[in-house]
Specification:
Largest sheet: 5 strands, antiparallel
Shape: globular
Number of domains: 1
CATH architecture: Beta Barrel
Oligomer: single chain
CATH topology: OB fold (Dihydrolipoamide Acetyltransferase, E2P)
Radius of gyration: 13 Å
CATH class: Mainly Beta
Helix content: under 10%
Mean pLDDT: 84
Distance between the termini: 36 Å
Length: 84
């Protein structure tokens, strides 16, 4: 069974001389009951900026991956709406 949830993903970058490459993404928030989730770079589509909302799914192996970019209310992302 595949679980889907909406998460705000935050880019985590290296601060080394290698051009501040993205190391991984984690979810915003988190608590003892629901700790932050970590997503690998290859599991998240490219986007500009440091934060973005995505529908993510967890496969039976337990790994999360982003499948669709959405706005913070869960509606489909539109490039024109970025500044609104």
């Amino acid at each position: 069974m595949i679980t889907r949830r909406r998460f705000e993903l935050i880019r985590q970058r290296s601060s080394r001389v290698d051009g501040h490459r993205t190391l991984f993404f984690n979810t915003a928030g988190g608590s003892r009951k629901r700790p932050s989730k970590f997503l690998r770079v290859e599991d998240v589509p490219e986007f500009e900026g440091e934060r973005a909302w995505f529908i993510c799914e967890r496969a039976p192996g337990g790994r999360w991956r982003a499948v669709q970019r959405v706005d913070r209310f869960g509606r489909a992302w539109e490039e024109e709406a970025e500044g609104a």
